[in-house]
């Protein structure tokens, strides 16, 4: 605890001190938490309490897809809160019904009926329960390099090290290898055939295979084009559903509405949150196919929340989807994403510590190596749950000193700017990354 008399300038602003004292920092050793007070955000930029301005190259937590000035969304929320701030889920509002209809329109295939929640993790919890109810099986196969949320079911199906503290977790969760060409011994297409064998050996008792179509926080892993179609075939051959977790990859991030669209795959269940409202309100959604929806006509849909379909949240969702459509932001993400890709490839050429630059659209990763022309990560998976900073943390910190916020995890910088970013803003951010990657270049082994 810090008393007022002990506090000095180096402890930050009064708000930052209060926050550190009274509020938990997430996924952190509390002694290492150092919150920055944000006083304003506009376009692709945000400003701290000292007046420093930053380009938001990661859309905060890869969620502010519309940037920080989507007035139509802010207005829709304010109007809804004045009209009817809250009604119970047994009632409906215009925005809830219309957003359900919109999601059926923009999602692939037969996905048609939505359960609304308030976060990505709740969207995944609902998907797990629905798959179990529908198939009568309880096992869920997911992958090691994945993140699906912090609540008990979702953290149990998560593969990354954040799961370990929550173990043993819920029963029936099984982990599979990843399509991770950079650091795994299995070729991506071998890894998918391994999942076929896993389902076979489980005796066809699996309810669902759950994957991020393009892995997000675990390093922007893009599988080969044939991977996801083959995974769906494998799941169905064994009586399991394919759940695609689009919480991070959805809403234009990849240059398509959803990551599954990049591969032309129609999943059985899709989860989404983040970009669904452009982060203007907390909203999660779990969308299922007609067949699954029909199953619950005469079987109880045994799930719900007080805030399922919260009027302000669905008002934000509807206005956000309309904004993506009216401003052609999905197409825009694809075009500007090409440019970001070119600029990132050029960085990779220039900096020996870049082991691989990968991604699609405005969803890109820069993975570091400590040995030139080899793929030797600076960071290990265990670093995610250890004290202290890693080389990739120092790269992010240096980019921040140069006016660009870029998220990272383990050994990879995560570039996922708002879909509204301009080429000039990309140039400015890339300049900061260029300076920051000197840090990893200097940290390389001889
Ligand atoms: C793919 C994926 N699923 C689920 C979640 C959990 O979402 P939330 O933090 O809104 O619960 C995340 C969060 O980053 C995610 O990236």
What does this structure look like?
There is one protein chain. This protein is of the alpha/beta class. It folds into 2 domains: 36-68 and 328-442, Aspartate Aminotransferase, domain 1, CATH 3.90.1150; 71-326, 3-Layer(aba) Sandwich (Aspartate Aminotransferase, domain 2). It contains 14 helices and 15 strands. It has helices spanning 14-22, 59-62, 71-83, 94-106, 120-135, 152-157, 188-201, 227-237, 259-262, 290-295, 311-326, 329-350, 391-401, 423-442, and strands at residues 38-42, 45-48, 53-56, 111-117, 139-143, 173-176, 206-211, 241-245, 269-272, 284-289, 354-360, 363-368, 404-405, 407-409, 412-415. The strands form 3 sheets. A 7-stranded mixed beta sheet has the order 4-10-9-8-7-5-6, with helices on both faces. The chain has a 4-stranded mixed beta sheet with strand order 1-2-3-13. It has a 4-stranded antiparallel beta sheet with strand order 11-12-15-14. A hairpin with a 4-residue loop joins strand 2 and strand 3 (53-56). Helix 3 runs antiparallel to helix 11, helix 4 crosses helix 11 and helix 12 packs parallel to helix 14 (423-442). The chain is globular and about 65 Å long. The protein starts with 13 loop residues before the first helix and ends with a helix. The model is unreliable at 1-7 (pLDDT under 50). Pyridoxal-5'-phosphate (PLP) binds at residues 119-121, 124, 147-149, 212, 216-217, 245, 247-248, 273.
